[in-house]
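# nightly structure sweep
# worker-07 picked up a monomer target from the shared queue
# config: single-sequence mode, recycle default, output format = structure tokens
# input follows
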Amino acid sequence: MESTSVPGACLCGAVRFEIRLPALFCAHCHCSICRRAHGAGYVTWVGTLVDNFTLLAGENHLVRYRSSDHGTRSFCKICGSTLFFTSAHHPDRIDVVLANLHGTADLRPQFHAYFDDRAAWVEINDDLLRLGGATGLEPL
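# output follows
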């Protein structure tokens, strides 16, 4: 039987959490802020309702950084792992870095967000929907 929740943690394990399934979405984000925050060409997020997210340990190790007028990113102050993103645009949701889950979410990546903002050196060879524009979620 498939689990109804998936645990996760930062690299050092000081911050531990779980999300209850089903997830709302799973997507690759190519925005410049995500790229810089993660030091990567893009980051894969899984979205869940705040009510389906539980911080199990490490509240005192979380640092929150307001990265835009509406967005806040949380990371572990010990190991530096980027963990969560919240936005005033959708206050009932928390986005979790897929790679920090210690198990499988119920969704695989479904689309590319902010695709028109992607790094020129990133090559994408999949058939996922590509979204962009001012909101990052408009059909291209």
